[in-house]
TrEMBL record:
Keywords: Metal-binding, Zinc, Zinc-finger
SUPFAM superfamilies the UniProt entry points to: HIT/MYND zinc finger-like
Molecular function via GO: zinc ion binding
Domain MYND-type: 9-49
Pfam families assigned: zf-MYND (PF01753)
Protein origin, superkingdom: Eukaryota
Protein name: MYND-type domain-containing protein
Amino acid sequence: MSAPAAGECLVCGTQTKNRCSACATAGIDLFFCSPEHQKLVWHVHRLFCGPGKADPWRWPPLSPAEVDAALALLDTVPFPDIKPATLGDKLLRIFNEPRDQLPVRSACPHTHRSLPLILLRAVPGIIQHLSQSTSLPTLYESAALRCIRLHMHDQWMADYKRYGTHKPTSAATAMTGLNFWSLMYLYEHDPPAWTAGYLHRASVFVALQLSTAPAKERLTYFPGVADRVIKYLQEAAVTDPDRARKVEEGFRSFVDKWWNQFKPGGVYWSLFERSRNA
């Protein structure tokens, strides 16, 4: 099948012939009307750009900062009443370590259950291993990366609710949150053909969230970006109705949740107005 001659800019929707050349090499056409618009979302797009990353979609390894953050949060439980498990507990479940009969040591502040010392030494090795390309089956690698990044996202939310403080979240963590909210993780065993197209379009929404561009400029693009993601999913629903509609419902929920928090006067509006590195 020949590549389309033109398409909508992922940022503003303008028809253009300009596409990401690296992603075109990977077999997926992603259009940007100008270098400025590609640069606006590059801090997220670069993680998933080009062969081996763009299509099929592959989650990036942990960055050094993410490794440090994960190790620091290994024994924490962000929301004890909702998800009473430490990051270490969650990782060990993924790799099928037996948990029955394991001794536990004293818990740190805000922890529900702590890891035994011998396994605590092993879990940091798992985290370090995920800082590079691994030979793990893709499902295990994706599940472990998602587990770590969702835990960091939960801790970010918990810290803000408890103390009113926050640290900037990573692009990969923010994308993992969107992937979770839109229920894409349900289909990792048998990814839909439209997976990469959806996630690349949705990544523009996340990129605008995390951008250091003025808030007013970003707000200009949000509605159109969301509408184009939904349009893409509705087109996918013609041949894959059950999965595409479920993901559309999840994406709408993500957008509504975000807007209620970040709209003027919302809980996190002040954070949205600050630069990412403030």
